[in-house]
Please model this.
Amino acid sequence: MILVILKDIATLCSISGVLAIILVIAHRFLNDYGIVKININGKKDINVKGGNSLLSSLADNKIFIPSACGGRGTCGACKCGITKGGGPLLPTERPLLTKEELITNTRLACQVKVKSDIYINIPENIFNIRKFNSKIVEIIDYTYDIKGVTFKLDAGEKIDFKAGQYIQLITQPYAKMRQSVSRAYSISSKPEEDDRIQLIIRYVPEGICTTWVHQQLKVGDEVSFTGPYGDFFLRDTDADILFVAGGSGKAPIKSILDHLQVVGTQRRMTYFFGARSKKDLYLTEEMKAFESVFEYFRYEPVLSQPKAEDNWDGKTGYVMPFLKETIRDPQNTEAYLCGSPGMIDAVSKALIAAGIAKDKIYFDSFG
Ligand SMILES: Cc1cc2nc3c(=O)[nH]c(=O)nc-3n(C[C@H](O)[C@H](O)[C@H](O)COP(=O)(O)OP(=O)(O)OC[C@H]3O[C@@H](n4cnc5c(N)ncnc54)[C@H](O)[C@@H]3O)c2cc1C
Ligand code: FES
Model:
């Protein structure tokens, strides 16, 4: 009886083994799209191995489309026009595309798979985005969960960016993380220091990249990143400026202020920094010092939950109620917001209610 059962088990095992081999072979052949062509802006063809995402196929050819979420289909940064060969729109793309983008065949490069020849349109400035290799030269603990990390580029390398823009850090495998991922971080140093960049990185519990930065990286380590990306930079007007940031959202505003200190400005600027309690404040002296650098600049940290031991005598609550009183002329005011999606949403609503036009509100959402 036992022998019969063992024989049946052996037969079942060999059948499933054969099936598994057939499946592997079928998978290999069915997903073998061969070499396919990506035509870019009607001007340039590149040949790639079919089957990968458009985003990674382009990156393999040193064409770096912004991909702030690292290709997870949540940020919408990787939008590009596809005139032919993109296949049907995927349910993962729809929520991130506007009605107009749907009509104009805009797609998410991280979701589209290149299975046949494909014709795409991307802005020319994407060709300026490069990969950089660097060495960490400084790590500063700004708070219990925020570090400032400075990356010195390889000898002779320079990065040309606008104050406010971001890069995408590429992690290396560590602990159980077998794959590299890439994440967006705003540059906090000024563009005039073009042989290095500083980033301000807040630890996210369980976060792949921030755990790597906070727990693995040390001075002397070699790190790669791509960039510069983004359209969050100071517009060249004479309008009053409202900066609003929270947490590591201080990074691009610091870059803009450091840059303005170099080039000079007569613009009237007010900067609200929202934090929970005093232990979340950092670079306060440096920001306050700008009050004696610029003709009109005010730095206002606002604590939402100050602790008794903080002895806080500054502004409390959220920043929204304080915004209106600082706006002289809503028609001639620009706002630059940086931080969590919740903060950006709430502040944008308050600014629009105060009369600032939607298209004068610039933001980078770190969500
Ligand atoms: C344009 C842009 C600029 C950015 N600049 C900065 C910057 O200067 N400094 C900085 O610290 N971050 C910045 N970010 C956020 C950064 O890109 C990462 O999303 C963040 O550091 C988390 O990455 P991770 O790999 O550690 O976490 P992940 O492994 O991606 O996420 C782990 C978990 O945490 C959640 N999560 C992801 N991000 C956050 C967050 N920010 N807060 C709370 N929960 C989160 C995720 O939903 C997930 O459940 C920026 C984002 C964008 C889009
Ligand atoms: S890279 Fe974020 S949606 Fe495509």
Observations:
- The helical segments are 2-30, 54-60, 99-103, 208-215, 250-263, 284-289, 320-326, 341-353.
